């Protein structure tokens, strides 16, 4: 099981933190950090994204036989969303297809959800009797992100595929984290200068 600390939550939004659950330190996305159920639940717990009742279902209410299928769907959603958001940053046909897929996925998730009150307003919540509610939960979180975030602030790390919201002015932040990619990039340019 993988444990997640604050360095896993640098995206500025849960959706971006969700996309950032890959360990690759380049532009590949092969090293999935939430590939097994216990790691996924550990991430969900650390992200504080589900209610206590939902966490209880994730911990004890989903049979082993269903977990692999759900993880596959979560993984597919994660990569479709990454490609779609990457398409906002640099449009390409394949990325637009991903955006269309995501749009369709959002429509089906909403049609299977209820509007429930939250704070001063309402939000879409998937019906928990459907086994797919975990996946739909993420789909609706993505809908919320797309509709309520200043998407001009979206950036992807220059070195890896981690995404974040840039809060600085001008060119702003270029790396997911100075501790990892920022330092590695500095080291490379230092070596190049001193060759
Ligand atoms: Zn990075």
Question: How would you explain this protein's 3D organization?
Answer:
With 195 residues, the protein is mainly alpha-helical. It has seven helices and four strands, in the order H-H-H-H-H-E-E-H-E-E-H. The strands form two sheets. The protein has a two-stranded antiparallel ribbon. Strand 3 and strand 4 (163-165) form a beta hairpin. Helix 4 (64-89) crosses helix 5, helix 4 (64-89) packs parallel to helix 6 and helix 5 packs across helix 6 (133-148). The longest helix is centred in the middle third of the chain and has 26 residues, at 64-89. The chain is globular, with a radius of gyration of 18 Å. Bound molecules: zinc ion. Zinc ion binds at residues 157, 159-160, 162, 175-176, 180-181.
Summary?
The chain has 195 residues and is mainly alpha-helical. The chain is 53% helix and 9% strand.
Distinct small molecules bound, one entry per kind: zinc ion
Number of strands: 4
Mean pLDDT: 92
Rg calc: 18 Å
Classify the oligomer.
single chain
Largest sheet: 2 strands, antiparallel
Helix content: 40-55%
Which key features would you list for this structure?
single chain; 195 residues; mainly alpha; two-stranded antiparallel sheet; 7 helices; 4 strands; binds zinc ion
Strand and helix layout:
Elements: H1 14-19, H2 37-47, H3 52-61, H4 64-89, H5 93-111, E1 113-118, E2 121-126, H6 133-148, E3 154-156, E4 163-165, H7 178-193
Antiparallel strand pairs: 1-2, 3-4
Helix pairs in contact: 4-5, 4-6, 5-6
Zinc ion binds next to helix 7.
